[in-house]
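Problem statement: downstream parser choked on a complex file, so we are re-checking the raw output for the 2-acetamido-2-deoxy-beta-D-glucopyranose run. The parser issue turned out to be on our end (a line-ending mismatch), but while we're here, posting the original submission so the record is complete.
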Amino acid sequence: MKNDDVHSFFLVVVLVLAAALSPAVATAAQWQLLKSSIGVSAMHMQLLPNDRVVVFDRTDFGPSNLSLPDGRCRDDPRDWTLSHDCTAHAAEYDVATNAVRALTLETDPWCSSATLDPDGRLVQTGGANDGERAVRYFNPCFDCDWKEEPAGLAAPRWYATNHVLPDGTAIVVGGRSQPSFEFVPKNRITSAVVLPLLRDTNDPGELNNLYPFVYLNVDGNLFIFANNRSILFDYNTNTVFREYPPTPDGDPRNYPCAGSSVLLPLPPSGDNVQVLICGGAPRGAFVKASTQKLFVGALKTCLRMGINDPSPTWSIETMPSARVMGDMVLLPDGDEVLIVNGAAAGSSGWELGRDPVLAPVGYRPGAPAGVRFEVKTPTTVPRMYHSSAVLLRDGRVLVGGSNPHAFYNFTGVDYPTDLSLEAYSPEYLAPEKAKLRPRVVAAPKDLVYGERFTVRFDVAAVNEKQVRVTMLSPSFATHSFSMNQRLLILEAEETAPAVEEDEWVYEVAVVAPRSAFIAPPGYYMLFIVNGGIPSEGIWVHIQPQ
Ligand SMILES: *[C@@H]1O[C@H](CO)[C@@H](O)[C@H](O)[C@H]1NC(C)=O
Ligand SMILES: *[C@@H]1O[C@H](CO)[C@@H](O)[C@H](O)[C@H]1NC(C)=O
Ligand SMILES: *[C@@H]1O[C@H](CO)[C@@H](O)[C@H](O)[C@H]1NC(C)=O
């Protein structure tokens, strides 16, 4: 071989090796900057059934970058920083027009929790300071603003998790120094009830049981994960039915060693309910970062368990990269979970994260073990502590936030406060998939449990055998967990051309979820998925039984 040949031979070997060692990067996924600033950092986000996203932060860090209209100001002598404040700490983002409207919050919703009620109204609870016992309501109408009950909760709740129950009310679980739960509205019991799991998993100095992962199981009980333990819990009788094995490594997965978690897509039968938890930080990461400025590497593993298995065990899978403070989003195709945002070192908390992870990772729960992960196109914006992500009805993922500081600091700090909103478009939105993308042309708006209904859609290239209908609840995202995130795969008959219709129009007969244990009442986005490509969702509603 000549010298040049030797060089190119080695170059090829190196390239082949590099390709073999680094996971494939899917380039069809796209990032788009929607707004360079909405004026408020997206610590909390909720999509409402009018396609507007309520975004809010805290009220006690000083002025935001969004003024309140009409000379409105908030006078609060208890505010830690600014007792006369004419800026907004909540905003409404309109997906259709890309416009932002300032909202008026009176009490502090810092690190709070929420659900939608069956009417699509945001019911938002707790926070800090003057907001720790507040219940706040926000209606999905076009010029609404917050309504607040400053003493609506039985106990102060900061870093709690809410979940919608089958009767449409909400349970509020935990919070800092609050190992208990309660209901909103208070129609069952009016006081807080002690939950021993939260008392027993409260590591002194380190917590690790905040923002517990809570899911409604298909038997009506709640799966509750805190720190490194989890239980199946009957909130009606205050009974623990089942204690699951602890995490195999013993490491915590909740705030501040924050991993993220989802309930994997539920099949129509409700069989095989599985919980997935990804990333987090090793025990001690929070204390090491806060007292010694030692930023330990995040966890690289995901844990997955069938919670109704006869002998449930966590199976362990290794992600392409370590991640703490990620956000997990169920994509409407029902095939993939997106893991986005976060860092590779440190923990949640002010100034405690390092090494932003810019590339999301997809996890395909139905693929064979070993080939489930795929590294996606990276963003350029670090989304550290206090960032969030929610799915939009058009299939994009709205990503915002990142403010690892006690104030809004734009200069002179690592990871400046970020006020932007970005959209992540998964591969299914790529232009070359347009022929496969269905469009719903007729469907009922109101569904009844167990009732058969028909959805009519058009699409240029149908694959009758591969049409799937999914339903997704809009979730409340904050602190690496999306409360009430639930994806249902509906029982569907084979797709057929619609009679007496144009070419390309098809019909699929579907059965609505059979019970409120499978699908609590409220609003859902319904998607037709053709050969893996979802339509734009449509809003459907299920009344309480
Ligand atoms: C927010 O306002 C501050 C103070 O006026 C300004 O320095 C900063 O650039 C603004 N940031 C954004 C992202 O708008
Ligand atoms: C789970 O966490 C606790 C601390 O809360 C710790 O003492 C225990 O050893 C951990 N469990 C396992 C199996 O490592
Ligand atoms: C962050 O902002 C606050 C409030 O404006 C200010 O007091 C503080 O000095 C800033 N921190 C840094 C590191 O610039």
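For whoever reads this later: Residues 431-542 form a domain with the Immunoglobulin-like fold (CATH 2.60.40.10).
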